[in-house]
Amino acid sequence: MTTYEAFYRQSVDQPDAFWAEQAKLIDWQTPPTRMCDNDHPPFTRWFGGGRTNLCHNAVDRHLKDRGQQPALIHVSTETGAEETYTFAQLHEQVQLAAAMLRGLGVGKGDRVLIYMPMIPQAVFAMLACARIGAIHSVVFGGFASVSLASRIEDAAPRLIVSADAGSRGGKVVAYKPLLDEAIYLSAHKPEAVLMVDRRMAPLDPAPGRDWDWDALALRHQGEVVPCEWLDSNDISYTMYTSGTTGQPKGVQRDVGGYAVALAASMKHIMQGEAGGTYFCTSDIGWVVGHSYIVYGPLIAGMATILYEGLPIRPDAGVWWSLVEKFKVSAMFSAPTAVRVLKKHDQALMKKYDLSSLKALYLAGEPLDAPTARWISDALGVPIIDNYWQTETGWPILTIANGVERKASKFGSPGVPMYGWKVKIVHETTGQELTEPNQKGVVMIDLPTPPGFMQTIWRDDARFVKTYWESIPGKTAYSTFDWGIRDADGYYYILGRTDDVINVAGHRLGTREIEESISSHAGVAEVAVVGVADTLKGQVAMAFVVPRHAADVADDAGQFKLEGEIMKAVDSQLGAVARPSRVRFVTALPKTRSGKLLRRAIQAVCEGRDPGDLTTIEDPTALQQIKELLAG
Ligand code: ATP
Ligand code: MG
Q1: Atom number of ligand 1 nearest to Cα 243
Q2: What's this model's pTM, rounded to 2 decimal places?
Q3: Along the chain (631 residues), what's the average pLDDT of each consecutive run of 10 residues?
Q4: Rounded to 5 degrees, what are φ and ψ at 111?
Q5: Rounded to an integer, what distance in angstroms lies between the CA atom of residue 384 and that of residue 374?
Q6: Which residues are near ligand 1 (CB < 6 Å)?
Q7: Domains and their CATH numbers in the chain
Q8: Cis ω before 314 (30° cut-off from 0)
Q9: Residue 598 and residue 614: Cα distance in Å, rounded?
């Protein structure tokens, strides 16, 4: 039995040998001749000379042993739909989609923009692109026209695949008008648009441009479309970061490196076993959805659940009913979803048989200890925090229980994953901080492992400048997140480098203050921002969603909870970290991927324009803050 320590050491000391071994986890038409190519830093290339295909690895190679086993399970609590595709049926549907794409003129290297709800055709379209070597660019379904238009312009797709509508909380969101408007706004026009008609909203097809999925499928029935063997370093897809800190970046990914990285992470991190069922609650519009709804589980030969709906409809037990029904062995979600569940009764989850479940993986945002404890109590399985970015494609920090069982520490995502040379660096001097518990920027040294982004789509210069030149004279990748490493080698993420406030000369991470506030049992969610102050430079301002609105004030109408929260911060961090005010709201402004938009809250607090809000989930949350401040 290898220890994780030895496994990790080999990955960084002998990357060629290590990854040659991992490369065996996938099928190659031609095996690679060169593992790591770091000749042109910071552009690391993997598996040179190798030829493979993501769709082959996700679908075709399973036909022999598990053709009749479930591959894609679609559940919509919005429409009531529930259908299962075996690997054989998935193979058939993907070929059909690939035939349609080819019929519409799409070939290798062409871009296909996918703007779809969580329906099977979205997965068919992604895999069809991978099959024929087209580059997919999935945009979160329901994004506003302006954000969609900028992505159409950047990706310059030959084809757009979409649907008439999505649905959220029972409310139909018509996509077609948003799409038509976006195409109108974009300087680039696609040649064709392929529409799935769910019969939920009017379609109004543009003659000569728009095609109906079902009608076109009839014409291509039974066509055989073999997998196109691609160079390992060909492009598989592009996708945009969440845009939490500003303008989203178009992350570009390869074929072979990504396939190997996912196959390895399914084995070593996710403990995925062929024949099992994986349930990732994210959306195909995010990297988590690409890696752990679509490609990862399928490459591992698992069934994957594609879920359209909220975690709390018809009630907060719905996810756990699916775990019971489909014998889910591993689940992946986000802290923001757990915080939503936390407002409901734990009994709703406990009434289901969750004995198939081995672990719950959470990523996307800091996982505060109280939330981790709450869900851990409710489920009775390990809660595995994992830290990564759209850029990295798979976790940088977590626990690799598939290699060696290790205890998690609440509040820490874990230790560096194999292949990632993670370090903590002093923000200005660029010195590596080697002693435990020193706070610095989390950075990564070359070579980057398989699965990491190749570049920013069509902009190598922006890639280098954005990520690799934050410390003058040194080439290292910056995550733009603060972190520390404890004496046991566990890392803690302390927020983003732009989320630091300076109170009377003391530098404080907003994340640390948030962690302290969320330790109060009455707090469901919290956001802390630094607000300009003439006396102190900046002061901290806290916005809290209380667990029970009735707790906020006492009988005399005094802000009891505010006082208690301030006391908690005083005792845990010291008076200097105490927020100048704690304000109570019913919701916090977040991106569509569930990340707090601190930059927008801060702008509103300082009376500035919050800037680009096209990726915001619920604009009324920001409006509420505006009104609070005005009142
Ligand atoms: P943009 O880069 O466009 O501002 P973004 O950083 O929100 O958007 P993502 O790539 O979706 O886009 O998010 C990655 C970031 O999410 C990380 O850099 C980190 O700040 C945060 N994050 C992800 N997982 C964790 C985790 N487990 N713990 C703490 N923070 C996390
Ligand atoms: Mg980012």
Answers
A1: 3
A2: 0.93
A3: 92 98 98 98 98 99 98 98 98 98 98 98 99 98 90 96 96 97 97 98 96 98 97 97 80 98 98 97 96 98 98 96 98 94 89 96 92 93 97 98 93 97 94 96 98 97 95 93 97 89 83 90 92 90 92 80 93 90 94 88 92 80 92 80
A4: -95, 140
A5: 13
A6: 241-246, 248-249, 363-367, 385-390, 413, 479, 481, 493, 496, 593, 595
A7: 4-309+386-440 (3.40.50.12780), 504-630 (3.30.300.30)
A8: yes
A9: 15
